[in-house]
Write a structure and sequence with these properties.
Blueprint lengths: L2 H5 L4 H8 L3 H13 L1 H20 L4 H12 L10 H4 L7 H8 L1 H9 L10 H6 L19 H16 L10 H10 L7 H11 L11 H19 L5 H19 L1
Helix pairs in contact: 3-4, 4-5, 4-10, 10-11, 13-14
The structure holds fe (ii) ion (FE2).
């Protein structure tokens, strides 16, 4: 099955699952479906969205295929976590949150076998919750993150935002894009966000217009948070946050 056929909406999500076509990957996906159906369905949708992004970003099939297989299994570590915790609503206790964050490491340990060498991109499994600014699970930053990881980060978040839960409606696509653009360059890769927006809104050019005051407030909060964290105005992270705010203020005056 070719990558281009996966991006054809007529082939449907079923083709994405068939794509795994390695006995171990298929077995693990079936295990995930049995353990926690919502995570399985989320993984399939994120893989379908990532396949569109890989194609739109022009990744050759030989590069995209192991990435796509890895996206299907990006949350496989959740089979090591009690479904009661995966389903828990409301705020988590600190130890529950720490356990949940471990799913990346559990996934890595499950897939780190000779049989899967070359089939799976382990960076996607371990680092799919990293942010450009280093505030993700492992603190990796922009230059440390491969393109595949940046793509999955955006596709994963977009699906998590738009999918309705038992206890709340999902965001609309417009609301989700406003959120992605709000954190573009901070958590999310700006090019990947723009490509996803273009894919979902082929009739429009440019991103959604954010409320400028909201944007300025966020950047101001970010500057205060970074200052409180590092305690020095000359720390590079504080300088960067200050420059981001200055830049936004300049743009605001230009408009
Ligand atoms: Fe995850």
């Amino acid at each position: 099955m070719s990558l281009s056929s996966l991006t054809d909406s007529a082939s449907g999500l079923h083709s994405i699952v068939e794509f795994s076509h390695n006995d171990i990957c298929s077995f693990l996906l079936r295990k995930l479906r049995k353990h926690h159906r919502e995570t399985y369905l989320h993984s399939v949708r994120v893989a379908a969205l990532s396949a569109e992004l890989f194609a739109a970003l022009g990744l050759p099939a030989e590069e995209a295929e192991p990435l796509l297989r890895s996206v299907l299994l990006h949350d496989i570590g959740k089979i090591s976590i009690d479904p009661a915790l995966l389903n828990k609503q409301g705020p988590l206790r600190n130890e529950e949150w720490q356990l949940l964050k471990h799913h990346c490491r559990y996934g890595f340990d499950i897939l780190d076998t000779d049989a899967l060498r070359g089939w799976i991109d382990m960076d996607i499994i371990l680092y799919h919750h990293e942010n450009l600014d280093g505030t993700g699970y492992y603190g990796l930053k922009q230059d440390d993150l491969p393109l595949g990881v940046k793509i999955v980060r955006v596709a994963d978040s977009f699906d998590a935002m738009t999918e309705p839960r038992a206890y709340c409606r999902g965001m609309t696509a417009q609301e989700s894009f406003e959120e992605l653009y709000r954190w573009s360059g901070v958590h999310y890769d700006p090019d990947v966000v723009a490509v996803l927006y273009a894919l979902k809104n082929p009739e429009k050019t440019g991103g959604p217009t954010l409320n400028m005051m909201e944007m300025l407030n966020r950047l101001r909060d970010r500057l205060v948070e970074t200052y409180l964290q590092y305690g020095s105005l000359s720390h590079p992270e504080v300088v960067k946050a200050s420059q981001n705010l200055d830049q936004a203020l300049n743009e605001f005056q230009l408009h």
